[in-house]
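Deliverable D5.2: sample structural annotation.
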Amino acid sequence: MTATGTSTSTSDGDWRLFRGDGTPRHVHIPEAPPWRRFTPSHQSSARPTPYLIGAAEADVVNAALHLRRPLLVTGYPGTGKSSLAYAVAHELGLGRVLHWPINSRSTLQEALYRYDAVARLREANLRRERHDSEPGIGSYVRLGPLGTALVPRDRPRVLLADELDKGDVDLPNDLLTVFEEGEFEVPELARLTEDEATVQVLTDDPDDQVPVVRGRVRCTEFPVVVITSNGEREFPPAFLRRCIRLDLPEPDEERLRDIVKAHLGAAALEDVDDLVREFLGRRAPGELATDQLLNAVFLRKGGVDLDADGLLNAVLHRLGRAV
């Protein structure tokens, strides 16, 4: 300990970083779990671990790809619904996943595009004072994740519409026309004169711009749309008819071990029998997620000196039933 009462090391093999005794310490922060390491956005389309899915479930995914239909993925939390979109993008080389996290305030328009009229007016006033030319409208139009997915390209993009059941009850019906037609209009651009027919606008991809002609965006390849749902409510029949439905089951003991191996390596399986048994014994439908078991195994692998019951109590909190 230094003269100021600050400990400079905790290299005593103890896994505890925080002691709760009020003494400042310079400690080594260990490496984060693989699923909690953050990379620059341009690298986020690749996942460091394989995505494990059964043959029957993979066939449903392939059916959606061939039919160019949205894939509606349901299942309890932790069954890998959102990760499926990243797995498809990674395996098929379709680039960065376009992520649309849905909540109760989400609208179709914000998913398609946003127009910042206030910022444009402010800039126009400033330029007028400086006797400069008016700003172009394209700098104030940004396509959202769904709008970016519909930009015409030779290869489709992957769109993850996450947790649709959290959205407004009318949102699934609002999506029907866009999914059927594969196009939408930006009225602010459609009203421009013939001389301004083509406008470069921003997209959901960082530092990217695309041309929009006469205010219309129409895909040439329908995007790979993965819609996730926790099964909290039923969707309209017309919406369900236009989707390919995939229900992901909760993994059994063999699949759990495969998941642990994929994320943490084969060595992590050497001392996890009690953790897996305890996890399966506690798990009721929808009440525990697979990533909670991964948390427990990661802590065990990192030297946490708690028994299975104590360790699982620290990381396994009931989520409540998903349906």
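Annotation notes: The chain has twelve helices and eleven strands. The CA atoms of residues 49 and 263 lie 6 Å apart.
The annotation will be released with the project's public dataset once the embargo ends.
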